[in-house]
Specification:
Two copies of one chain form a homodimer. Chain A is of the alpha/beta class and about 210 residues long. Chain A has two domains: about 5-75, Orthogonal Bundle (Arc Repressor Mutant, subunit A), CATH 1.10.10.10; about 85-195, Rossmann fold, CATH 3.40.50. The first copy, chain A, has helices spanning about 10-25, 35-40, 45-55, 65-75, 90-100, 135-145, 155-165, 195-214, and strands at about 30, 65, 85-90, 110-115, 125, 130, 145-150, 170-175, 185-190. In chain A, helix 5 links the parallel strand 3 and strand 4 (about 110-115). In chain A, helix 1 (about 10-25) packs across helix 4 and helix 2 (about 35-40) packs across helix 3 (about 45-55). The termini of chain A are far apart. At the A-B interface, helix 1, helix 5 and helix 8 of A face helix 1, helix 5 and helix 8 of B. The structure holds a DNA duplex (24 and 24 nucleotides).
DNA sequence: TAGATTGTTAATCGATTAACAATC
DNA sequence: TAGATTGTTAATCGATTAACAATC
């Protein structure tokens, strides 16, 4: 049953379509690829191709049934069966993620944070506890945690990663700006803001250079 | 003077090389592409091609001079001439960005946050002030702010964006999960965590499916 | 000299875009 | 029916990888 492979680029755009569809007010029953494309700044052929890969509800002349499309994207992204996650590192970013309620919309259920700093342990952030690293493995097994989110400084990231592996985690979302070596069986996704920033600032520098030149 | 175009993919990897080079201890004077590749989990040809686009210090048999390479990457990314930035939205994420000191390494100088919530205005976060939206335009012009970072909820993002445009900002780093329409002259970079998360969770779902099947 | 390593050119792969057929 | 819109097939574009020449 060779599942139609959907490209990574498409997968990354699916949440964008879904967010837009959810934000629609006025209750229009159908929406066209053209309308979606212009609202999101994408090409309309791209939208059609993206949607075709997860849905089959498009009707010529009419467009896509909004509710059906939402359901199909959510189904594909697995938002209805949420993943349990924990955060390692209860610093500013870790607490921001822990306290952010929006993740539930994306099928991510962050249960707790863990930190080596005992002065943080025992506190709560938006109703969610900060626990000690000793409790990590037990907690993960007990609560069926699949995703570990690393928000510690780079120097502690390797150690945090090892703790997650030891706790039997299946996937890691790594916000530390450092490469982590994990077994092939573990999924890892780096989220390095410096990478995005580099794109922004080189574009800006180029623009400033052009202006100075003219 | 047609500047050798460096691909976006390469630009996004440059900070990763730089971070690794900076983290090197032991004071080795040279490093090979092979060593860099294995430390970072990249292909070695890719590393060589990436480095070739910004530097010229590679020597067969020896490798790249570490200090020279660091300087060349920093030069290309413009880290020595920092950009001034401000944050709109002093929520958890906004304050995390405002208080994060690591950005100075990446040539980003976040000066202040702005918020419509008057109860937050006047407070400080790690020595940096939270100001009212009325002060935005004046502050940006006075302090020569080029980059605006949007961390407000999606419903307020359009309004925040308009305020930034009115303040004459040149580039926007948008953390709100919504498409913002800006004039072509303004650079915009979306940072949508739901997009990355979608990649992670679909991989995880696939993996869980496979395990269940066997 | 021999060999490790760089750097470049060509081939492959993946994603986007264009052209067009299908359909309500 | 006519036309707007979907969906697919082919062409283009960009990035990665492979092969190989250059060099210290």
């Amino acid at each position: 049953m060779a599942q139609n492979e959907i490209s990574i680029a498409t997968i990354q755009r699916l949440p964008i379509y879904l967010d837009y569809l959810k934000s629609m007010t006025g209750g229009a029953e159908y929406i066209s690829a053209t309308a979606l494309a212009s609202a999101l700044g994408f090409g309309e052929v791209q939208v059609r191709k993206d949607l075709a890969s997860v849905c089959s509800s498009g009707k010529p002349k009419i467009g896509y049934h909004v509710e059906e499309l939402k359901a199909e994207i959510e189904e594909y992204l697995g938002y209805h069966k949420a993943n349990n996650a924990i955060v390692i590192g209860a610093g500013r970013l870790g607490c921001a993620l822990l306290g952010y309620e929006g993740f539930s919309r994306y099928g991510l259920n962050i249960l707790a944070a863990f930190d080596i700093d005992v002065s943080k342990v025992g506190k709560m952030e938006n109703g969610k506890p900060i626990l000690s690293m000793e409790e990590l493995a037990g907690f993960c097994r007990r609560e069926n945690v699949q995703i570990g989110i690393i928000t510690v400084p780079a120097v502690h990231a390797k150690q945090a990663c090892e703790a997650l592996l030891a706790a039997g985690i299946l996937a890691i979302w790594n916000f530390a700006p450092i490469h982590l070596d994990v077994p092939e069986s573990v999924i890892i996704k780096d989220e390095n803001m410096a990478c995005s920033l580099a794109v922004l600032s080189t574009k800006l520098a180029k623009k400033l250079g052009e202006n100075a030149a003219t």
